Amino acid sequence: MQEFPILPERASTIAGEVDALFWGLVAFSVIAASAVIGIVLYLAIKYRAGSAADRSGRVEGNFKMELAWIATAVVLGIAVFTAGAKVYFDTVYAPADALHVYVVGKQWMWKIEHPEGPREINELHVPVGRPVRLTITSQDVIHSFYVPEFRIKMDAVPGRYTQAWFQATQPGVYHLFCAEYCGTEHSRMIGRVVAMTPADYEAWLESQKAGAVVASAATAGGTMASRGEQLFVGLGCASCHVQGPQARGPSLVGLMGTEVTLADGSTVVADEAYIRESILNPAAKIVAGWTPVMPSFQGLVSEEDIFQLIQYIQSLSRPGGASQ
Ligand code: CUA
């Protein structure tokens, strides 16, 4: 079986759970299909034309048997759903201490950005032994971020954020595929995930930071938050979102993750999706006490820009983060 593996190598903490579900469903299907085929064959032979089998005592219906069949199907259906839902939730909601990575799919490449600064195309470097959370979106059509060895696959959908996470268990280089047909070069929208020991990963981060500064000192250097801060000032956000009497928009300090009360009295949690919507469609959710004077930044910022702005706003929430 070594030369002909049925499933890819298991290289993440979740892989065993996914495989158990897969093999469980295969076993269930084989047992159910064998039983149906077996009974059909048995009855077809027993009651074949001209056989001497007893054909008297015709059954017109059996309420108890129908009830038993429905109950069995319901229980089995709910059991399969529960097992699948558990794996789904386990793969979507990352532990709180996860490293954060931002992913933008576009025709036809994966653009990946680390909060510490490094940007990659069709490559993702991660440390083993630490959960890594992905926030994924698309700049054009639907793509799907698929790493078979990690057993994770999550669609990249234009206009919204999706989440996935994994924890690599062993250093190595793994396939990254686009698993959603997205145009002419869909089959070439491939890359690799490089899982490294924590020490190698730290060294890689440092080398990337140094390289970025050399490559383009003006814009490429610094963290995502510092690039976001440059955008925040450059786009004029800073002239309204200030603290004090001259403010024309709510302060963003400490905003991330808090509950915001809107003009209509409802509340919303200030998460990544909320920040994105407020940049592209500010009138959608007006914060209580403010007038809708902010213009839309649709077309002025890319998905990557928005990720950087989110990181900047998040940095305003942390002690020692950039001041406003
Ligand atoms: Cu992107 Cu297929």
TL;DR of this structure?
By secondary structure, the chain is an alpha+beta fold. It contains seven helices and twelve strands. A hairpin with a 5-residue loop joins strand 11 and strand 12.
Can you tell me about this structure?
The radius of gyration is 27 Å and the shape is elongated. Among the domains are: 99-215, Immunoglobulin-like; 224-315, Cytochrome c-like domain (Cytochrome Bc1 Complex, Chain D, domain 2, Orthogonal Bundle), CATH 1.10.760.10. With 324 residues, the protein is of the alpha+beta class. The protein is 36% helix and 20% strand. The chain has helices at residues 15-46, 63-92, 198-215, 224-234, 237-240, 272-280, 303-315; strands spanning 99-106, 109-113, 119-121, 123-127, 131-138, 143-147, 152-156, 162-167, 172-178, 191-196, 259-261, 267-269. The strands form 3 sheets. The chain has a 5-stranded mixed sheet, covered by helices on one side. A 5-stranded mixed sheet has the order 4-10-9-6-7. Bound molecules: dinuclear copper ion. Dinuclear copper ion (CUA) binds next to loops. Dinuclear copper ion binds at residues 105, 108, 143, 178, 180-182, 186, 189.
